[in-house]
Amino acid sequence: MFVRAVLAAVTALVSSSLVPITPAVAAPFSLAAPLAAPLAAPLSAPLSKVAPLSLAAPGDAGVRWSVQPSSAKGPDGRDFIIRRASPGERITDYVGITNLTAEPQAFSVYGTDAFTTDDGSFALLAAANQPTDIGSWIGLGAKQYTVPANTRLDVPFSITVPDNATPGDHAGGVIASIAEEQVDANGQKVLVDRRIAARVYLTIAGAATPQIKIDTVRLEYSQSTNPANGGDMTVTYLVRNTGNLRLNGVGSVRVNGPFGWELARTDAMEIPELLPGGSVTVTEKITGVQPTVRLAAEVSVVPASFDQQLPAVSRGTGVWAWPWALVCLLGAAVLYLFFRLARRRIRARRSDAI
Length: 354
Description:
- This protein is mainly beta.
- It contains 3 helices and 19 strands.
- It folds into 2 domains: 2-204, Sandwich (Immunoglobulin-like); 212-322, Immunoglobulin-like (Sandwich).
- It has helices at 2-18, 134-137, 324-353, and strands spanning 43-46, 65-70, 81-85, 90-99, 105-116, 122-124, 138-140, 144-147, 151-160, 168-183, 189-204, 212-223, 231-241, 247-256, 262-265, 269-274, 279-289, 293-304, 313-321.
- The strands form 4 sheets. Strands 3, 5, 6, 8, 10 and 11 form a 6-stranded mixed sheet that branches. Strands 1, 2, 4, 7 and 9 form a 5-stranded antiparallel sheet that branches.
- The N and C termini lie far apart (102 Å).
């Protein structure tokens, strides 16, 4: 049980660190025709005949490999596997698994679901978690493939879309993994599941509803000991993808004083790709904001899908920011005037008494 728990934890860590997180816009391409025949056998090619690959798993054991989108004729230049399909359709594609070592290597190959992490990164489910979306639609001819030394193996896989699949984007990956026995810091042997994946994005035909929402906005304001320096404002907001298409965008914050007086504005902040249902928390710190009794922050996010720009969404809130130095100065002035007025009245009464 201990080994299994360690295996699941390390799997999640390695997966999230090795899978790329910044998607590139791919040119649209036509749908593959539905297949009635079984998947074709994997195609292998000597490493000397393929272009150098950038994705390779590091490790103390010296096992290095890469995974990339491919075809029956080899890699086709795609960064990710991006397809379109209709409910009930079955399509095929390829991943190229390249063994960059001098010994044959056996890889476990399977599909799984993707999700957006709390910091906005793209990640895949741990090996111990069963996929329920596109990962469960991916089928391969075998669970394990042996790739000869210095050779790329182009492995075909199918995606069988259920009849009740929801419209919009579904994200996952095809993983090639190796479980290695290593010794931890305590001298105990543990199984480490090292994984590399090719991302898979599938758009199901139907009504598209791209939508981003700013769930919450929180403000914190702290004044400097030097009144001339103003204070620091920290703005934290949660951006959530409530639609059915993956979206990214640009966020910015504007700080206003009374009567809409603009005090500060942040530079554009890139919002990472958010899968449907995914969210990310963004924190901006603005320095030198003068207290003006009431400060208001308006957060604006301009979402963008990968083929269109969408209307901006905004949300604001406020915080009290008393200019205590000015308040103290005015208070001292009021006390001084009150004291002067009181002395004047006392003198006037004494004069009347004489």
